[in-house]
Specification:
Elements lengths: L1 E2 L12 H14 L5 H12 L4 H19 L17 H5 L1 H16 L17 E2 L18 H9 L18
Parallel strand pairs: 1-2
Helix pairs in contact: 1-5, 2-3
Length: about 170
């Protein structure tokens, strides 16, 4: 079982609304409260199966951080979390981990139909550390609009019978 090695920020929100509220409140301040957690979480998301690349990314970021702390300037003055699609990871890593815990819980449960295997492969999934899991994991879901449902109805494939085996002699 693969478990992310992360330092312990406070346990994240325990609802979708709490995650959104945490992110929006911190977005205005534009401050990374737990940069170490954010940095490592970004590395796990970018290179889940490549430890040397994760380590290289972290080392490069830390070297740039030390360089900028010493008063030296770099060509790009922005920090890693500015103007990035990963901004939520930098501003609210606790909320991101709370959301990830819900998807992890959902993806590792066996499917109800015919007790099929889970959606996610247990041997490939990087899990949220147990101490960072919310008390009751949750999954984000939203209802489809009537227009979306109608579109799906029009795209439904016909259910034609396709014989999978040759007929037995004497039977049709």
């Amino acid at each position: 079982m693969l478990v992310m090695n992360l330092p312990n920020p406070p346990v994240g929100p325990d609802s979708v609304e709490g995650c959104v509220e945490a992110y929006l409140n911190r977005l205005q301040a534009d401050d990374a409260l737990w940069p170490r957690v954010s940095l490592l979480l970004t590395a796990y998301m970018a290179w889940p199966s490549d430890e040397p690349k994760r380590d290289s990314f972290v080392a490069t970021y830390l070297a740039r951080f030390i360089q900028n702390s010493a008063g030296e300037t770099s060509r790009n003055e922005t920090t890693a979390h500015e103007a990035s699609i990963l901004k939520a990871v930098w501003i609210a890593p606790d909320a991101v981990l709370a959301l990830a815990a819900g998807f992890q819980e959902f993806g590792l449960q066996p499917k109800g139909v015919r007790k099929e295997s889970p959606i996610l492969r247990q041997d490939k999934l990087w899990r949220v550390p147990p101490e960072l899991l919310p008390n009751k994991p949750f999954v984000v879901s939203r209802l489809l609009t009537e227009g979306q449902l109608e579109y799906l109805r029009t795209r439904r494939a016909s259910k034609k019978y396709v014989r999978t085996a040759a007929p037995v002699r004497g039977r049709r």
